[in-house]
Amino acid sequence: MHTCVNNLLNQGAHVFGEILDADRTHALYQQMIAARAFDGSLFMDQAEYLAQENHFNANPTPAFNFLNQFDEQLQFIEQDPRLTQVLAHVLGEDYEVVIRKAVCGVPDAWLPDWIRERIRDVNVANLGPYIKKPYRDITYFRGIDFHQDIIDWPRGRVELDPSTFMTLYVYLHEVTEHDSPLHLMPGTHRLGATLFPHRLQHQQGDHWVYGDDQGNSLACTDQRLIGGPGYVGLWHNCTLHGTRPVAHESEQFRLSLRYLLGKSNANRHRTGIDDINSRIQGELRPIRTRRDLDDKGVAQMRGNIINQG
């Protein structure tokens, strides 16, 4: 556990790798893909989409959630002692699950032409607003630019302290370079919460320079998370990460699990997250997290930084 805690403290992230039982992970994956048709039939027609008032409320909630039918099957992940021990150290033994959800990376072949055109070069291609409402209990995306997970949690949105939030991510099947793997930027949490889209300049290869709005900057490296069933990563809510779209030639979709976890308000003791946050020089509880959406939640900015690398 020492290595994991040290990585979280210094890098804002720790990659456990393929630590979960592969057979049980594969069995869970098979049950999940048997429970829904994962194909182009998930999408609304254009008239139904245009009749919507806005893009809000198009994602899973704790109550409206595809994973709720798999409570028993998820126990081997949620009670894995290697994970719970670390989480208890960082967030306290009474840590809370803010939300858990299935995340689906969508291949180009599923998309109707009119949707493909609408999301062209959009930096957060969250497909929720285009999905038929009964199926919005999963998050569907086609690439998402480098971002921080605090993007969805400006101050006042939730009772828990968003500065304590950590993301636990689990691959359910083999994820290669062509399957929209996570791109993680260890160390970027040190600048705290910055406005999305973020100030990133590609240098060479996997090397970038990341800056905030106060003139501070740091060098960082894009780490691709490639792995098989049961591959796990954990990161701070200010650590930059993103994905490129599933490769055009692939019809395989990526289905993964994402847990957002936080420290309980009842826990007044100092835990690992307090040590991590004490080393961060920027904002931890932002009032505003992004500058790319209009008042209906529709993206108004184009250009996907992650695809420059």
Q: What do these coordinates show?
A:
- There is one protein chain.
- The protein is of the alpha+beta class and 309 residues long.
- The strands form 2 sheets. Strands 1, 2, 3, 4, 5, 6, 10, 11, 12 and 13 form a 10-stranded mixed β-sheet that branches. Strands 7-8-9 form a 3-stranded antiparallel β-sheet, with no helix packed on it.
- A hairpin with a 5-residue loop joins strand 8 and strand 9 (217-221).
- The chain has 7 helices and 13 strands.
- It has one domain (2-308): q2cbj1_9rhob like domain (Jelly Rolls).
Keywords:
single chain, globular, ten-stranded mixed beta sheet, Jelly Rolls, 7 helices, 309 residues, alpha+beta, three-stranded antiparallel beta sheet, 18% helix
Order of helices and strands: HEHHHHEHEEEEEEEEEEEH
Strand content: 15-25%
Largest sheet: 10 strands, mixed
Shape type: globular
Low-pLDDT parts are: none
CATH topology annotation? Jelly Rolls
The tally of beta strands, per DSSP, is 13
CATH superfamily: q2cbj1_9rhob like domain
CATH architecture: Sandwich
| CATH C-level category | Mainly Beta
Rg, nearest Å: 19 Å
Secondary structure topology:
Blueprint: H1 2-11, E1 13-18, H2 22-34, H3 46-50, H4 75-78, H5 81-91, E2 96-105, H6 113-118, E3 124-126, E4 139-147, E5 166-171, E6 182-184, E7 199-204, E8 207-211, E9 217-221, E10 223-225, E11 231-236, E12 241-243, E13 254-262, H7 272-278
Parallel strand pairs: 2-4
Antiparallel strand pairs: 1-11, 2-13, 3-4, 4-12, 5-11, 5-13, 6-10, 6-12, 7-8, 8-9
Helix pairs in contact: 1-7
